[in-house]
């Protein structure tokens, strides 16, 4: 009798497979450990490895100049070797691994990585490229084994691996000093481990050494994925959803006590939640311990954070505790990632308010951040006497380098039109009444003295009654892409808070500021706040080529990795990408059709058999997971591919479809700048889905026809790789839009720029 299952849409019971296994006299139903060797599987895996490493390591050291984002991540690897602190919007693991690979292969961290196109000359950059390429190459065998475990189909696994191997875009992304091959490796390893856990659980192997190893490996890979880029959260969600689905099915296994479910939940929580969190925190601990020297990223962090960096002006600093008139100070915006109050000898353009000197915030330290505190009605304190600055005082701030005063008036700000413009005004420190500001201590008492670093301050304009603030908006090129400073009529603006960082005064005694240095967890939390804010603030620069999510699946436009006489162009193999879309749409149609058919059959069964018939509860091994259990085996040697129910293949494809959705749809909601390479995690799921759907569609055909169709598709994919491989391996000569170019006939879309 068929058993009705309310979860059959994604997880259909695998009772038929369980019975096949139980009836097989040569292999117990729950024993998949001592299966005879599947020689065909090993032969195919060897072929996949051979082709993968052959295509990935061919010309891996060419071109011998900086390509695309190698200028960023190679430079960051150098900073790890030199222990120099920097700011980046991504977590640290990928850059630490790049630095470690360079260090272990003889790179000394001195190459500047200034701009794309710079020659490496005698620099030992090869080790970092080999490392990234190796991780990128391991994606293909893991994809092969993942699809095989999901379907028990050699054909589906081989086709999925071929789609990954012969995509020239994935090849290009794998061969350079980038975070992408590292991210994709850890992401694929997480999915591979997820499927192995499911397979081991379905085979009755819970709590065995192998089961614990796969759980620990998966948790480790999840931690590593999100430690490379925050988009690793998407694969964390996928594994979390899949784990919740399995636990729900285990809860419904009435043959096991409720204690079994509790044990499963506890084990998975320990290895897939607690362990990744510990590991993720540990990576940041290493990051903060290694980068202990002051660098160009200091200014993105709070004054207290900077006091832990060797070489920073605040490290073991001795400076006055109190702030007084006549002091030379730097003033830092107190928000996360806030910059220093800054000015330079350039004017606002005509269309941006009064043509007076620009005032900005700047995240790097230089002399243009220095300000002199003066009384509001005098140039200096009479007689050189010491007078402390107190809560509620009126003052003027003079820019030390240009001798102009901090000023505001009724003109609108250049970017935030609800705010007023802030400028530098006057000559040799002499201005007008619009230079007067009242300093207030946030939450302070009347007449309270102002302290260096720890006092949170507001500067309220005396005449306009607006608060000096950093709007967070980036100025155009005329403002050197620094942050806008304006005056907000809403004085409760949370970004209108500042603190004095550097404080120089010859009449005040100095104290040591090491007591204010934060501990690890305070710096850990601040690092995340700065990274998240930096990610959200990534906007396209003027003239920069970006892309939109709708363009990615259709391979609308690529991007140059190298634009010199030796050109590299990141573009997907069009045969693979466009057929991926076809199979993706076919899956949606077939899945919905099957859901409707199953629902109608369930209704018909309820009508024809109104009286419920008792049925034994399913065992855990019979309950569905994302992959089938071990197949029956022939008597001699080679494992035989068991015929699976169509629903099993659809169920496996459904989880890959969920993976594709999780790695693609969130980009539609992102406000940050986006690039073509952001689609490649989703592409991996789509390529594995294609192998499963192709095998599903041809399953009812004769074997000879199945093999003929598979061979034809593999040949087409391999031939298209040969045609488009110059995009990855390097092009020279005329561009493709010229008739005498060797690539002219391959420019199938006008938006392709190679």
From TrEMBL:
<dbReference type="Pfam" id="PF16192">
    <property type="entry name" value="PMT_4TMC"/>
</dbReference>
<feature type="transmembrane region" description="Helical">
    <location>
        <begin position="41"/>
        <end position="58"/>
    </location>
</feature>
<dbReference type="Pfam" id="PF02366">
    <property type="entry name" value="PMT"/>
</dbReference>
<feature type="domain" description="MIR">
    <location>
        <begin position="386"/>
        <end position="442"/>
    </location>
</feature>
<feature type="transmembrane region" description="Helical">
    <location>
        <begin position="676"/>
        <end position="697"/>
    </location>
</feature>
<feature type="domain" description="MIR">
    <location>
        <begin position="447"/>
        <end position="503"/>
    </location>
</feature>
<protein>
    <recommendedName>
        <fullName>Protein O-mannosyl-transferase 2</fullName>
        <ecNumber>2.4.1.109</ecNumber>
    </recommendedName>
</protein>
<feature type="transmembrane region" description="Helical">
    <location>
        <begin position="709"/>
        <end position="729"/>
    </location>
</feature>
<dbReference type="GO" id="GO:0005789">
    <property type="term" value="C:endoplasmic reticulum membrane"/>
</dbReference>
<keyword id="KW-0256">Endoplasmic reticulum</keyword>
<comment type="function">
    <text>Rt/POMT1 and tw/POMT2 function as a protein O-mannosyltransferase in association with each other to generate and maintain normal muscle development.</text>
</comment>
<keyword id="KW-0472">Membrane</keyword>
<dbReference type="InterPro" id="IPR016093">
    <property type="entry name" value="MIR_motif"/>
</dbReference>
<comment type="similarity">
    <text>Belongs to the glycosyltransferase 39 family.</text>
</comment>
<dbReference type="InterPro" id="IPR032421">
    <property type="entry name" value="PMT_4TMC"/>
</dbReference>
<keyword id="KW-0677">Repeat</keyword>
<keyword id="KW-1133">Transmembrane helix</keyword>
<dbReference type="InterPro" id="IPR036300">
    <property type="entry name" value="MIR_dom_sf"/>
</dbReference>
<feature type="transmembrane region" description="Helical">
    <location>
        <begin position="127"/>
        <end position="144"/>
    </location>
</feature>
<feature type="transmembrane region" description="Helical">
    <location>
        <begin position="209"/>
        <end position="228"/>
    </location>
</feature>
<dbReference type="Pfam" id="PF02815">
    <property type="entry name" value="MIR"/>
</dbReference>
<dbReference type="InterPro" id="IPR027005">
    <property type="entry name" value="PMT-like"/>
</dbReference>
<feature type="transmembrane region" description="Helical">
    <location>
        <begin position="234"/>
        <end position="254"/>
    </location>
</feature>
<dbReference type="GO" id="GO:0004169">
    <property type="term" value="F:dolichyl-phosphate-mannose-protein mannosyltransferase activity"/>
</dbReference>
<keyword id="KW-0808">Transferase</keyword>
<feature type="transmembrane region" description="Helical">
    <location>
        <begin position="575"/>
        <end position="596"/>
    </location>
</feature>
<feature type="domain" description="MIR">
    <location>
        <begin position="320"/>
        <end position="376"/>
    </location>
</feature>
<comment type="subunit">
    <text>Interacts with Rt/POMT1.</text>
</comment>
<keyword id="KW-0328">Glycosyltransferase</keyword>
<feature type="transmembrane region" description="Helical">
    <location>
        <begin position="652"/>
        <end position="670"/>
    </location>
</feature>
<comment type="pathway">
    <text>Protein modification; protein glycosylation.</text>
</comment>
<dbReference type="InterPro" id="IPR003342">
    <property type="entry name" value="ArnT-like_N"/>
</dbReference>
<keyword id="KW-0812">Transmembrane</keyword>
<feature type="transmembrane region" description="Helical">
    <location>
        <begin position="266"/>
        <end position="286"/>
    </location>
</feature>
